Amino acid sequence: MAFVALADRDNDAHLHDPETFITKYVWSQDHKVIAIQYGVVSIFVGLIALALSVMMRLQLAFPESFSFITPNDYYQFVTMHGMIMVVYLLTALFLGGFGNYLIPLMCGARDMVFPYLNMLSFWTYFLSVIILLASFFVPGGPTGAGWTLYPPQTILPGTPGNELGILLMLLSLAVFIVAFTMGGLNYVTTILQARCRGMTLMRMPLSIWGIFTATVLGLLAFPALLVSAIMMLFDLLLGTSFFMPAILSMGEMPDYQGGTPILFQHLFWFFGHPEVYIVALPAFGIVSDILSVHARKNIFGYRMMVWAIVGIGALSFVVWAHHMYVSGMNPYFGFFFATTTLIIAIPTAIKVYNWVLTLWKGNIRLKVPMLFSIGFIFTFTHGGLTGLFLGNVTVDLPLSDTYFVIGHFHMVMGVSPVLVLFAAIYHWYPKMTGKMYNVPMAKAHFWLTFVSAYSLYLPMHYLGILGVPRRYFAYGGAEFIPASAQSLNVGITMASIVLATVQLLFIINLIWALKNGKPSGDNPWEATTLEWQTPETPPKHGNWGPELPEVYRWAYDYSVPGAKLDYIPQNEPHHGQGSVESDSDDAVDETKV
Amino acid sequence: MSMWTLSVALVCALIVWAVLVRYLMAQPWLPAGDPGNLDDITAVDQPAKKVGLYSFLGAISSMFILFITAYLMRMDPKHGADWFSIPKPGILWINTLLLVYSSISMQHAKSVAAQPGQVNLKRGLLIGGLFAFLFIAGQLWAWETLHGSVHFHLSNPALAFFYLLTGVHAIHLLGGLYVWGRVTSRVFNNARPESVALSIELCTTYWHYLLLVWLVLFGILLLT
Questions:
Q1: Which top CATH class is B90-224?
Q2: What mean pLDDT is reported for chain A?
Q3: Of chain A residues 216-245, which have a CB less than 8 A from chain B?
Q4: Which SS3 state, helix, strand or coil, does residue A205 take?
C-alpha cells in the first residue's frame, strides 16, 4: 500500500493565517506560537514551584528561624511544589511545549491537524494554571495535603486548605486534563496522519516516538486522575463516601462511612506511575536525538530504542502499586508489582546502554545541549538504580517515606527530565529564535546546575538510610536522628539555594540572546532532521514554503562513509537524485568526520 | 485495583503491539525507493477527524472503565458494608429505548447523507437529536424520582454511584448534542451533502458508542 500523507490528499486543509497582533501572538493557531506560549507559562509556574522548594529547604535547615514559614505554610509549599513541577511544568512543557513545536516540524507537516483545538488546549491549560494559583489567595490558602492528595486527611479539618484550597486544586486538575486531552488528540492524530511523503513511522526521530507514546499514555492515564478528582469532589461537596471512611476527626464524627482511601490510591497511582513515563519518554526521545547530533553518530540500536519506548509505555500501566507497598494491600499484589517493576528496568537499561554506545567512538562535540544530555545519563542512571532498591518490597518497607525516596525520585524524575529540558531548549533555541545564546554563560549554567543538583540530592539518600522521614516540618529532638544529619540538611539547603539562583543565568541568557544573540543560521548543529531544513529560521507560518519536504532516509545519517559531509539531511535523495553523497570514500571530509 | 483492570490493560497492550509490530520491523537505515510508495501505517487512508474521534473514544473508554472498576471495588463486601441496593426507576427502561431509537435514527441519517435529496437526512438527524434530548430529560426524571424517595442518602455509595455514572454519561451525550446541533444547523442551511457526510458519520459513531456505554452502565447498575 502506498504511503499517503494527509497534507497531500486533503486539499481542504488551509492555514489560518494570522492577520493581527492578537491572532498572531494571543489567539494564535500556529503550533510554534502555541508551543512558546506553553513554554513561557510552564516555566513561569515552574519558577514559582522552585521558590517554594527553597522556602521548604530554609525551614528544614534553620528550623524556628523564619516566622513567616508556619507548619501549614510548609505543607502547602510541599504540595504545590510537587503538583506544579510534575503536572504544570514537566508535562506541559514536554508535551504542550516541545510536542507542539517539534511534531509538525519533524514530521514535515504545516501545522497540527486541528489548529483551533490546539489553541483551545493552550488557553484551557492557562485557565487551569490561573485556578491553581488562585488557591494562594483564598481563605485557608492552597491545599497542604501533599501532591498525592490522599484522603481522608485531604478534606478533613486540620489539613491546610481543606475547603477552598482542595476544591481549586481538584478543579484545576480537571481543567488541565481537558486541556491535555485536546492537545493530546492533536499530537496523536498529527503524527499518524500528517507526516510528509516518505516519513514512515520507522523514519521518525526518536523525539517524536517519545512524544507520541507519552501522549498515548496520557490519554489513557489522565482519566484515572480525572475519575479520582471527580469522586473526591463528590465527597467534598456532596458528602458522599467514595473515599472517606468513618473517622473521628478532631473530636467530631463527620458524616462519612465506609469509604475506601485505598481505592483513591489505586486510581491515583494508575495515573501517577504512567505520569512518570509521560515525562520520561519525551525526555528519552529528545536526549537520543541530541546525543546523536552532537556525537556525529547514528543512534545506536534505533529499532531497539523504538521497541523500548513502546515497551516501557505498555509496562508502565502494570507497575502502579509499587507506590503502595506500605498501604496494607494484598501481599501477592506486592510480589506481582515488584516483578513488573524489575521487568521495566530491562527496556530502560537498554536505552541507557544505547546512549552510551552512541557516544562510543563518536566525534563528540561538547556543545551546551550535549553537556546537559551527558549529565542526564548520569542522573538518570543514578535515579534508576535507586529505583531498583525501592521496587523491591522488602527493601522498600524500611526506606518508604524517608529521604531516600525524595532523593530517588528527584534524581530520576526531577533533575533528569529538567536537564533534558535545558538540553532541548539550548538545542532548539537557535531554530525558535534565529539567534545563538551566550555559550560561556550557558556552560556555566550547566556546571553549576549539575554540581549543585548532585550536592542537593545525593546526601538525601544517606539521610533516608539513616531513617530521616520525609514530610516533617521540624524534627525536634528525635533521638534516632544524629546531629550530623542536621548539618547535612544545612548543606543540602545551601546547594538548593545555589541551584535555584543559577537558574537566573538561564533566564537572563535566553532573554539577552533574543536581542543581542548572534544570528544562528538555519542549521547550526549540522543536523539531519527536517526542522533544521526549513526555508526560513525561525520557520514562518506554514513551515515549508510552497512545497512540503519529501523524506528519503532516516534521521540518523551522520558520518556516513563516502559522504562529502558528516551529515545527510532526511530530505536529501539517494545517489543519482542530487545526493550530497559522493561516489567514493576518498571524498570524505576529514575535518567533519 | 482489580485483576480485571489489569487484564484489560494487558490485552490493550498486546493489541497495540500486534498492530505496530509489522511496522516496527522496518530497517530505516537501508536506502528505500520512492517516498510516495513506502509501506507504512498511514496507508490506512482515514480522515484526520475520524482518527481524532477514535483517539478520543479511547481516552473516554479509559475513564468509563476506571469508573466501573471503582464501582466494583467500592461495592466489594470488604469495603462496602455500607452498600445498600437502591430501586432502579422504571423510566430507565424507557430511556434505554429512547437512546436505542436515537442511535438508529442517526444511523439512518448517516446512510442517507450521501444520497441526493435531504428530506430523509433532516428527518433522521432531527429524530436522533430529539430522542437524545428526551433520554437526558428521562435521566433527570429518574434523578428526581430517587431524590424524592426514602432511599435518598448520598452516604449510600450505590446511590452516589448512580448519580455519578448517569451524570458523567449524560454530560458526554450533551457534548455530542452540541456537535449534533452544529451539524444539523449546517444541513438545514443546505450545506453540500459531501461537506457534512463525515461529520454525520462521526456523530453517528459517537452515538453508538454512548449507547454501548449506557447499556454497560445500566447492566451494572441493574446487577447490584
A1: mainly alpha
A2: 91
A3: 219-224, 226-227, 230-231, 234, 238-242
A4: coil
